[in-house]
Design brief:
2 copies of one chain form a homodimer. Chain A is globular and about 80 Å long. The longest helix of chain A has 29 residues, at 391-419. With 502 residues, chain A is of the alpha+beta class. The first copy, chain A, contains 14 helices and 27 strands. The first copy, chain A, starts with 14 loop residues before the first helix and ends with a strand. In chain A, α2 (42-61) packs antiparallel against α6. Chain A has 3 domains: 2-284, Bira Bifunctional Protein, Domain 2 (BirA Bifunctional Protein, domain 2), CATH 3.30.930; 294-417, 3-Layer(aba) Sandwich (Rossmann fold), CATH 3.40.50.800; 422-499, 2-Layer Sandwich (Translation Initiation Factor IF3). In chain A, the strands form 7 sheets. Chain A has an 11-stranded mixed sheet with strand order 3-7-8-14-11-10-9-24-27-23-22, with helices on both faces. A 5-stranded mixed sheet of chain A has the order 18-15-19-20-21, sandwiched between helices. At the A-B interface, β2, α2, β3, β4 and β5 of A face β2, α2, β3, β4 and β5 of B.
Chain lengths: 502, 502
């Protein structure tokens, strides 16, 4: 059935191009002619709004307050934390002029700034400066702030949603009186991210700490949650950093203790971005396009009236409207079911495929035949199988159909990921064979995550670069067993996840 | 009662400084060391969230969809509409480099871009380019898009919320098949803005069209809604532009008509910004600080337990918690009453003043005496008078207290504004006398709006510059009568509003 493959190429044929085509077919977003930037179109934006609102609730429920800080970072601020500026220098967009003038009939920058301004790649510097003014006593702590903002990190190889020069995110920034509290905060927010990603986006993730080579510039520890794509690579879905006193010292964030002394605060920062949408696409979509976990679907149900017989048009439309109303009375995920009647002109078959490509969880067709029989034809996004269901029963069944689909998507992704975590690779030779292109003809073993021992020597991370592999994380569920480092063969107790990544 | 004047200076003493101090005392926002930019602190941000969410609902309810477009505008895009680029050239922040390097131990911009990028001062150019690709047939119209974003217009004289180099806003951009539809759209959104501003922020506004000298660069018509501050100046609260085919021609936004021809679309754009918060502060606040219209108050009610007697502490706190629960059961403006118990350490008197300065509509004190008498002491933000009320009755009374306060604030601002619209000024000499500094010693007549006849000659707008006065708008409620132009004495039928402005 040729029609059953709406995306060209398929995942098998060309995964990277398949990804672009899924986004295009769903009309979610597009690459902008503005280099490295994307336009997020209404279908993509609606998904981001669900993610944003859900995460925003979690951030507020855990005691944080939103605020907003400037887009610009003066160079002098950025320079205060040495490894921080070093980490971001290569991708900073710099504003040098604040006026345009016509010169020789050409529009050129004028009014050069004395101190150039960097567009925030992240806001530790600007917020650190503010915190140093806001905090003076232990009574001011903890200070728990979040902002929703755009940031810019100049990309040479952009990939829509996954890696764009401008992206949207939230960044939490907190300051605490003790090391213990700051650690607890960083871990708490990682756990909130896990819940968001697993429960809402149906993407299973592995939690762990980054190796030193992958740490956020200036952090003591970077914790991450990583998911697996269908081409068995890793995506870093987001990070939560324990910054120790590094930024407090750089920005002079100090507080008077109850005992009358002065101490530097302990800070954290944590963020997730529009990349989550890319991870969701890569985790769930198939060769027919986007598959949306019901909790982030702009429409849970699309009703397609089949209007082939003009004389029965009004009757069919009335039945569709009646079903729409019945569905709106039902509740899924704490809110009314989101339903849309697609009564635009056009053939039902074409509309069906359009909504499949947009990832809508449930499609329902109603035509004159169905009206006569008091039935409808329902189809779920994952199986695409059509089932005839009595009209009277479909609405009340919908919440459980959606909940089951949400759970099924998670379980499917979990099973896929677990199948592709390899624990039987113990030497660098085996790892090389596993990850190098020669093996690409054996897709059953190529790719995936390798879970193996690592000695912790940061110099070994360079060896991985040849394989285009990185340590994704040192997972929190360490086995504690002793073994040999998969790179050096030296005694090692750390468990690490190795993978190619986006 | 010296304590009754919490803001120093008062409005009379120094209005501009009073404004800064109100913001500082409420802990709403601060000037950032990043030139011309502000930090919006949690109390200010919460107010912005209410405005944003309310307006977002209105935008969606009128059929628009949100999307997101790049922060950067290539110079070549900006240049396509000549008057547009001319209008914004003087305030454009320009990115010229995308990397930082260390040179002679100094961090300097590197990797110069071939084509500089402007940070969006507004997005007609970027969105116009996208629309030209998205629209091909009359079936694609109307296209109704909105985005929430930050924009940058470099300011030489920033004033927090009112005029900052970076500000936040929404910008709607729509394309239509006919002139009539586009006009209808631009007017519809102006009306939504009016409702938002009058009903939510309790600020009365005057609707009208801008004179040619004040028009948005590239627009055919700019419609505005203007409010009056307590120093009797005007604030342009927002604008809605009918752009005709100007941008469609510049960006080639064309569509095939049902008749088989090709036509340029008619476009609109409309926006409101964080400036609305500044307008709200200027319209309502008093010499004791911020006064929040209940509909945008982060807390409607703050309960202050008076804990002077340690032995009755638990009892008083329990009564406060019980009242909190009772209040949360009540509904105002369609949502549960927002209530906060301030049980932090500190004197009740100090807390009271802190919440007055933050503009909370209702404060309720409960101490041991009140517990004994089953009463509480309630105080409204406008009168500050304390009233003893039976504890059992206060919760159910709260929604109407809030609704009354909301209405009272609107009526007070309306009365003030109407008192200061002068219709008896008919010559330029009189206008000069009214607006020039010599008159500042007669505050009863100085300042305010002048509603007078205008001949429509754009050259006359330059004469107003000497007086630091502008035509705020040609109000929609034109009288149609004939008279003499207040500037030139020539015959004139247009009614215009003249004022100094922020």
């Amino acid at each position: 059935m040729a029609e059953k493959c709406a995306i060209n190429p398929t995942r098998e044929e060309d995964y990277a191009e398949w990804y672009q085509q899924v986004i295009k077919a769903a009309d979610m977003a597009e690459n902008s002619p503005v280099r490295g930037c994307m336009v997020i179109k209404p279908w993509g934006w609606a998904i981001w709004e669900f993610i944003r609102d859900q995460l925003d609730s979690r951030i507020k429920a855990t005691g944080h307050q939103n605020a907003y800080f400037p887009l610009f970072v003066p160079l002098s601020f950025l320079q205060k934390e040495a490894s921080h500026v070093e980490g971001f220098a290569k991708e900073c967009a710099v504003v040098t002029h604040v006026r345009l003038e016509v010169k020789d009939k050409k529009l050129v920058p004028a009014a050069e700034l004395e101190e150039p301004l960097v567009i925030r790649p992240t806001s530790e510097a600007v917020i650190g400066e503010a915190f140093s003014r806001w905090i003076s006593s232990w009574r001011d702590l903890p200070l728990l702030i979040n902002q929703w903002a755009n940031v810019v990190r100049w990309e040479m190889r952009p990939r829509i949603f996954i890696r764009t020069s401008e992206f949207l995110w939230q960044e939490g920034h907190t300051a605490h009186a003790t090391e213990e509290e700051a650690w607890k905060e960083a871990k708490l927010m990682l756990e909130e991210y896990r819940k968001l990603t697993e429960e809402m986006l149906a993407i299973p993730v592995i939690l762990g700490s980054k190796s030193p080579g992958e740490r956020f510039p200036g952090a003591v520890d970077t914790m991450t949650f990583e998911c697996m794509t269908q081409d068995r690579k890793a995506i870093q879905c987001g990070t939560s950093h324990y910054l120790g006193q590094n930024f407090a010292k750089a920005f002079s964030i100090r507080f008077n203790t109850p005992q009358g002394g002065t101490e530097y605060a302990y800070t954290t920062s944590w963020g997730v971005t529009t990349r989550l949408i890319g991870a969701m696409i890569m985790a769930h979509s198939d060769d027919n396009g986007l598959c949306l976990p019901p909790k982030v679907a702009p429409y849970h149900v699309v009703i397609i009236p089949v209007l082939t017989k003009e004389e029965r048009r009004e009757e069919v439309l009335a039945a569709a409207r009646k079903l729409e109303k019945a569905l709106q009375q039902e509740v899924f995920d704490g809110k009314p079911v989101r339903v849309h009647v697609d009564d635009k002109e056009g053939r039902a078959g074409e509309k069906n495929w359009a909504w499949i490509k947009k990832g809508v969880p449930i499609r329902i067709e109603i035509g004159a035949r169905e009206v006569d029989a008091s039935t409808c034809v329902a189809s779920l996004r994952d199986s695409l199988e059509k089932t005839v269901i009595p009209l009277g029963g479909i609405a009340s069944k919908t919440p459980s159909l959606l909940a089951d689909l949400q759970e099924r998507m998670f379980q499917k992704a979990l099973q896929f990921r677990n199948q592709h975590i390899h624990t039987d690779i113990t030497t660098f030779e085996q790892m090389k064979a596993f990850f190098t292109p020669e093996c690409e003809e054996k897709p059953e073993i190529h790719g995936g995550f390798v879970r193996a021992k690592w000695c912790g020597d940061t110099a070994t991370e360079d060896l991985l670069k040849e394989l285009k592999v990185t340590i994704r994380c040192l997972p929190f569920d360490q086995s504690g067993t002793e073994g040999k480092c998969v790179i050096t063969g030296r005694p090692a107790t750390l468990d690490a996840i190795f993978a190619k990544s986006y």
